[in-house]
Design brief:
Arc Repressor Mutant, subunit A; 12 strands; Rossmann fold; 2 domains; 21% strand; alpha/beta
């Protein structure tokens, strides 16, 4: 998942990027509201984390402008202001959730995961598609009762496809959601990861899990086989 972090505190910005990257996110950075607005318009994100007290364009105004442009990805507001009026103002501007500084990174990650799932119509951390399931909390992938081991980027790609089953996703879109803005977008790495996923998840092409649509991209098939496994408590 690719997210945008708009935060002018460079130390906090760095620490959050490190922690979010460890959780499998690709993180783009902006240090002021104007830069944040440019990136929101220019790139396709799964979510954004926006601080209220930004230079050049404050966080509330930034969120309003983003929503005026019909950009709908979920937004978490970071605020050092601990009063309900500021929180209400942020939510009314178009924010989806908020955290008051200081906060625990684990809580930020949990809220971020939940917002991205809900934006894709998924309420549970366990995403199921036929005999395949993926747990966004434990990063566990299963086929029937068998756990499938994926690399970090294989998991990120499969997670994105599982959140958008039946949708055609181009190589460009997949690359944008796996890597930050500095990645070489002409790379054929997506083709490599797709081949690896097919080999690990559906080696005999029994389920026709990932379709290639020539000139368009890839699509995760919507499967109907029931999944009866449990991840336990």
């Amino acid at each position: 998942m690719r997210i945008l972090l708009v935060e002018d505190d460079i130390s906090l910005q760095h620490n959050l990027k490190v922690q979010l990257t460890k959780q499998g996110y690709s993180v783009d950075l902006a240090s002021d509201g104007e830069e944040g607005l440019f990136q929101c318009v220019e790139y396709n994100y799964d979510a954004a984390i926006i601080d209220v007290g930004l230079p050049k364009l404050d966080g509330i105004s930034l969120i309003k402008k983003v929503r005026e442009k019909q950009i709908t990805f979920p937004i978490i507001i970071l605020t050092a202001r601990d009063n309900w009026q500021d929180k209400v103002e942020g939510l009314d501007a178009g924010g989806d959730d908020y955290l008051t500084k200081p906060f625990q990174t684990e809580e930020l990650v949990a809220r971020l995961n939940a917002l991205i799932r809900r934006a894709s119509g998924k309420a549970s951390p366990i995403i199921q598609n036929g005999v395949f399931s993926l747990n966004t909390s434990s990063f566990e992938v299963k086929k029937n009762q068998q756990t499938i081991t994926l690399s970090g980027y294989e998991y990120k790609l499969f997670e994105y496809l599982m959140l958008h089953p039946g949708e055609i996703k181009s190589k460009t879109v997949l690359t944008e959601h796996l890597y930050d803005q500095d990645f070489d977008r002409d790379s054929n790495v997506i083709e490599v990861f797709i081949r690896r996923l097919r080999k690990k998840l559906d080696p005999d092409n029994t389920y026709r899990l990932i379709e290639t649509l020539r000139g368009q991209g890839y699509r995760l098939s919507i499967l109907t086989d029931p999944v009866t496994e449990s991840y336990g408590e």
